[in-house]
Each structure stands twice: as structure tokens, then as C-alpha cells.
UniProtKB/TrEMBL annotation:
GO cellular component terms, A-Z: cortical endoplasmic reticulum; endoplasmic reticulum membrane; Golgi apparatus
GO term, biological process aspect, one: sterol metabolic process
Transmembrane regions: 132-153, 165-188, 221-241
Family: Belongs to the ARV1 family.
Topology versus the membrane: Multi-pass membrane protein
Entry keyword set: Endoplasmic reticulum, Lipid metabolism, Lipid transport, Membrane, Transmembrane, Transmembrane helix, Transport
Source taxonomy: Eukaryota, Metazoa, Chordata, Craniata, Vertebrata
Protein name, UniProt field: Protein ARV
Subcellular localization: Endoplasmic reticulum membrane
Record function comment: Mediator of sterol homeostasis involved in sterol uptake, trafficking and distribution into membranes.
Source domain of life: Eukaryota
Amino acid sequence: GVEALTGLGVLPRAMAALGAYRCIECNGEATELYRDYQRGVLRISICKSCQKPVDKYIEYDPVIILINAVLCKAQAYRHILFNTKINIHGKLCVFCLLCEAYLRWLQLQDSSQNTDPDDLIRYAKEWDFYRMFGIASLEQTSFFIGIFISLWWMTPEMLKRKSDFILLLKALLLSTYGKLLLIPAVIWEHDYTPLCLAFIKVFVLISNSQAIRVTLNLNRILPWFAIFFGLILENSVVCLFQKMGWDV
């Protein structure tokens, strides 16, 4: 337990300002996650609202936490979003977009019968990859914008401060980790199917919904309304690209 608490490198200091941490069970504010009694004696804090451990995951192995996050457990999401210091949001987003762009680029190449090894053709194919990355980035940006607009319209009191927007953006970026499942599709592209890609898309949307729900402490319905509006805006961008004659 002590090694898990102190050796992961992601757990912040035990004491913090009021409301710096959240109880993973009831989402109540907490001033500390654990108390250090010196000589290796640590005690997990108890939530004053629900009388349960504030964050039991600080004793868990990272693999167990990851499994619980994959299962979309709200407690695991609260632990990651509120009680840890993880700053991989941007890198994770870029990596997922690269995987998505490469998969689209492969599909585009499969549909092309031109096998001319000329340098001009190779440069054109390289430009196609950059174009796919740009399109994937714009689609995801429009999806997030749609979510923010709908949430601001439905619950304006939830997004009054800049910090609320930043926290929700980080939560959405982290919740796109499901796109990493595209890596096997990239490695074994001859085995993947549209159905598999559809399942990955659904899983990412479920993760996005859970991230919104946990971050803003909403019910299960409002996040899905926000995601639905985000999908409408994203598909509008796709239709715009198609009218421009671009393969997406």
C-alpha cells in the first residue's frame, strides 16, 4: 500500500486547499486523500459526506485503475480527473489523431489503384496523410465545440469559470483513449472490419459521456444530449468536406 501511494509519481501532496480533491464515491469535496503518520504509516481519509474512503484507488495498482477506467466506472474517472496530476492530455490526443489519420490514409490508398513509384506520386500520398490528420483534427474539434455549446445552453451555471472549461476539455481529451484501439487495426489492417471500427467509435462516445457526467456531476441523460449535438456538428463538417470533393 505504501509503495502504491508514494511510488507512482502521480499522487499529489496529502494536504491541500479546501476542495482540491473529490470523494470518488459521492463527488464531495475533500481536503486530503490520506494522512501520513510518519514511519511508513499512512491512513486513507474518510469522506465526511458518505463516510467512505475518499479515494481507495490510491492503494491500487495502475493496471487495476486502468481496467476500471475501461469499464467506465465513475469512481475511476473521478480518481484520474480530480485526485491525480496527469498531464498527457495533449500528447494522448495527438497520438490518437495520428492513428485515426493513418487508418484513413490506408483506406484511401487501398481505394487507389495507382502503383507508380514516381517521386511526385509518393509526395502526393504523403500530403494525403497530412490532409487526413487535418480533417480528423477538425472533426474532433467540431465535436468538442458542439458539446461545449450544448452544455453551456443546457446548464450555463456549470461552466461559469474558465477552470471549468479547461477541466472539461482535459476530461474529454483523456476520454478519447479508446481510439488507441485503432492501433491493432493499423498493425493488422487486413483483419479489421467496419463493425470493429464502429464498436471503437461507440466505446469512445461512452467514455466521453462518462467524462462529462463525472466532471460536471450531471445525470446520465444530459451528457448524451451534448454528445448527440456534438455528433451533428461533426457530421456537418464531414458533409462540408464531401461537398468540397475531399475523401474523408
